[in-house]
């Protein structure tokens, strides 16, 4: 991870920890989740909002006024709205996408859920996804949500990432291992 990206992730994680703790103390995790989903959709839909949070040309006061108006219009829960205002005052709105991801991860962890990133050579069928979900849930001990993608360069098999663990059973990796073993012999 590059240094600026890790700094941004660190800033986002600190804000996310505080926001999550306050929302949890207020028993408003549902409202927080709704706000996260609404903000994620707004960032995806609005180039103006993305420009607002990233532009160094917008003054702190203007950024704070704009994000406060957006939060009020979207009826975000007070914890999230206040945090956005504080982030604007401190010139930290540029980490908003990372903040939303960190908050989403914190909510999933609080519910005992984990997301598995699964890459396969061909699209998985519904039955395969159900079997994989069941197997991973048994291994991890938590409810697993699968985020499946297709990567034809794998040739066959799967690459599964759950948290910091990765299982690579793809034919591509097996061929690479065989190639490396053959190089060592000759």
UniProtKB/TrEMBL annotation:
Keywords: ATP synthesis, Cell membrane, CF(1), Hydrogen ion transport, Ion transport, Membrane, Transport. It is a peripheral membrane protein. GO terms for molecular function: proton-transporting ATP synthase activity, rotational mechanism. Coiled coil: none annotated. The keyword Cell membrane applies. The keyword Methyltransferase does not apply. One of its GO terms (cellular component) is plasma membrane. It holds the Pfam family OSCP. It is found in: Cell membrane; Membrane. Belongs to the ATPase delta chain family. F(1)F(0) ATP synthase produces ATP from ADP in the presence of a proton or sodium gradient. F-type ATPases consist of two structural domains, F(1) containing the extramembraneous catalytic core and F(0) containing the membrane proton channel, linked together by a central stalk and a peripheral stalk. During catalysis, ATP synthesis in the catalytic domain of F(1) is coupled via a rotary mechanism of the central stalk subunits to proton translocation. NCBIfam families: ATP_synt_delta, PRK05758.2-2, PRK05758.3-2. This is ATP synthase subunit delta. It comes from Ruegeria pomeroyi. The gene is atpH.
């Amino acid at each position: 991870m590059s240094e600026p990206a890790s700094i941004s992730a660190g800033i986002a994680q600190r804000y996310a920890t505080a926001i999550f703790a306050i929302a949890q103390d207020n028993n408003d995790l549902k409202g927080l989740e709704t706000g996260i989903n609404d903000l994620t959709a707004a960032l995806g839909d609005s180039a103006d909002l993305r420009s607002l949070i990233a532009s160094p040309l917008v003054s702190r006061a203007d950024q704070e006024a704009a994000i406060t108006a957006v939060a009020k219009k979207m009826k975000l829960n007070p914890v999230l709205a206040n945090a956005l205002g504080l982030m604007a005052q401190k010139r930290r709105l540029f980490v908003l996408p990372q903040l939303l991801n960190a908050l989403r991860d914190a909510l999933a962890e609080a519910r005992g859920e984990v997301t598995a990133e699964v890459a396969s050579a061909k699209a998985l069928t519904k039955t395969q996804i159900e079997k994989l979900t069941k197997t991973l849930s048994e291994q991890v001990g938590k409810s697993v949500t699968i985020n499946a993608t297709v990567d034809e360069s794998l040739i066959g098999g799967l690459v599964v990432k759950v948290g910091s663990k990765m299982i690579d059973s793809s034919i591509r990796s097996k061929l690479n291992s065989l190639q490396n073993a053959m190089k060592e012999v000759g």
